[in-house]
Amino acid sequence: MADTTLLAEALFPHVTRLGADLEIQYPPRNLPTGAAITRFAPSPTGFMHIGGLFAALISERLAHQSEGVFFVRIEDTDKKREVEGATDIIRTTFAEYGIVVDEGLVRTSESVGAYGPYLQSERLDLYAICAKHLVAIGRAYPCFCTSEELAANTATQEAQKIRPGYRGQWARCRTHTVDEALARVRAGAPYVIRLRSEGTFDYHKVTVDDCIKGSLSLPENDLDTVLLKSDGYPTYHFAHIVDDHLMYTTHVIRGDEWLSSTPLHLELWSAFGWTAPRYGHIAPIQKVDGGGKRKLSKRKDPEANMAYYAEKGYPVPAVIEYLLNLANSNFEDWRKEHPATDYRKFPFSLKKLNVSGALFDEVKLMSISKELIAALPVEEMYTQMTTWLTVHDSALFDVVTNDAAYTKSILGIEKEGAKRKDIRAWSDAREELIYFFDTGFAVDTTLLTSDTPKEIVVEVFDRFLETYDPSDDATVWFGKVQAIAAALGYAENLKAFKQNPTAYKGHVGTIAQILRIAVTGKTKTPDLHTVMTVLGAERVGTRIRALRDILKKTRQML
Ligand code: GLU
Prior knowledge:
The protein is mainly alpha-helical and 558 residues long. The chain has helices at 3-11, 19-25, 50-64, 86-97, 124-136, 147-159, 178-186, 236-246, 262-272, 307-312, 316-327, 331-337, 362-374, 378-392, 394-402, 404-411, 429-433, 445-449, 454-467, 474-487, 494-499, 508-520, 528-535, 537-557, and strands spanning 37-40, 69-72, 103-104, 140-143, 192-195, 205-210, 214-219, 226-228, 251-255, 278-282, 286-289, 292-295, 490-491, 506-507. It contains 24 helices and 14 strands. Helix 3 links the parallel strand 1 (37-40) and strand 2. Helix 1 packs antiparallel against helix 5, helix 11 crosses helix 13 and helix 14 (378-392) packs antiparallel against helix 15 (394-402). It is elongated, with a radius of gyration of 34 Å. Bound molecules: glutamic acid. Glutamic acid (GLU) is lined by residues 41-43, 75, 236, 240, 252, 254-255.
């Protein structure tokens, strides 16, 4: 038996299975050629970052558009960072956003799939088997250095202005003989398992064929990185390699904070003699801040958290479409050409991803969202809106559901041609709907009289009430508003006013605006004739009369 095999046995006496047994336990997947196997591998920190959903969506698209598999693996080896319920947040966010997970812990609370466990803390035996193998072949060794010794190493390196790290001559335990190591193990000294790196940082480069960033040349790894900690838990570097090998991952799509460790990962793949998957590193989503751009921050930016979108009431497809738009700028043109097609038919491309970081823009999200809401059939709009209101605005929920037919007629305004675009997210519903209901209707009378003398406003009201007929169509209705304008010295249309501005007090727009404010309390609404039709003659009459009376009283008081 080779010395290193003896050492491996002494370090892992309970590990009896071999790497070859694992290859039998996890046979290759039976998938069509070219099928991508991708994964989302979050640490359960209890926070679903928009960048996480972005990466998950990219991986999911890659898998499913190639008839492959998308799975979720929970990387819970850092117990300090773990938050209870974190897996549920991932599961519910994916379910909400329609991210279909084929395997792992996210589809149900049970793990699904034949390549599990999908929770790293339940895979410690697999890491031990693989670590034992690396020790046996001489590519890993136990390190007994204490944290004080490691700190002293780093301090010396810093003092000598040498790149810090446990490597080469600085890697004290690397040179222990097997007998020395065995003696320490037998004496019960605590240890970690480290890679025995064969790389040279300064002289050799390794080519990373990144499927997002293209071909990159990076210095080789020369660090004897920790693979297994003293409690038997693996580091991310080691665990993801064992997992992605045994789960047959073809593409590792991850944040670009991992790019600099990729040479280490490639060294590990080759130490095992396994074929590495393609790595693809996504730059973080950025936002404009002041004059510059910066990474969306979990602490500073509420929009970094997926919970923000649910709270604001952005419909799920709007967020997905927005993310696809961020990922592939040609998505927008594709969408124009295929307005009714499922986004899953869009030919997503890794090559078109923004290498330096997509720029988050909520205004763009709003514009996608309002178009989508405008295009929803009334019934669907009603269902989605009330579903959101139950959770986020129960007072408005009570108001709108109290008269569902009326609410639906409000939602139906300018539905034809999807023209009404004042609702960008369900949280706009209050502002855009409440004035239709008497409980939420209020007018700031100064708005009415800011540009027009009270007497004229009252005159507009009187004349309107005399002539208003709810059965008038839009043309007749507008003709009457024009007649009021003309009678009070206002131009009947903008053109006439512009041609001879001094001849008029203003134009018909002012008269219509007075009426708009009077019946809605707002300066901007959908088409006024339609709004009045929905409000109904009684409400229109009551609102205008009440205002007229208030204005008349204030006039008398002057
Ligand atoms: N657990 C790692 C993280 O949360 C995953 C990186 C990867 O996808 O490999 O950053």
